[in-house]
Amino acid sequence: MSAPAFEKLLREAFPQPAEATSYLTPAEYGAYAELEKAPKPDLAFRFERVRLVVAMGLIKLLADLGDHDESRRVLNVLHRAAQARSIAEIDKVIHRDAQAFEQLYTNLYVNDEGEQVLQLFERTLDADSREGMDDVLFDALVLLPQLDFSHYDEEDEAE
């Protein structure tokens, strides 16, 4: 599965070209392929980049399901962290903006779909191997067709 599943998740999470280009660079799209061919000294960093980009995709889905400002703040933190050039830089960004993650869970009401996406997000953060990340990607692709974004259709009709 791996790289194709990763790319499909990104296409589904960022369906609008303007959003995709503002959040995802060619480096983010190619993060899984880079992980697959990374030399051993680069594996940890490449894995962290994959984890960040998968987390971005899942948080974007959560934000779109419920139009959550907190989710969008977390998405922006993850986006900044994905631009980092080392694990230390990633950690610095995440720690500096840790309150965004805390606020994500404060008074956040989500429906069953949102809860499932949030659980996948948590599993992404907990994943410590490529196999674990592949499991998250597989489960995300199984969940995607079940997600209801029909409120966007209703908003488009109202305009």
UniProtKB/TrEMBL annotation:
It comes from the Bacteria. This is Uncharacterized protein. The lineage of its organism: Bacteria, Pseudomonadati, Bacteroidota, Cytophagia, Cytophagales.
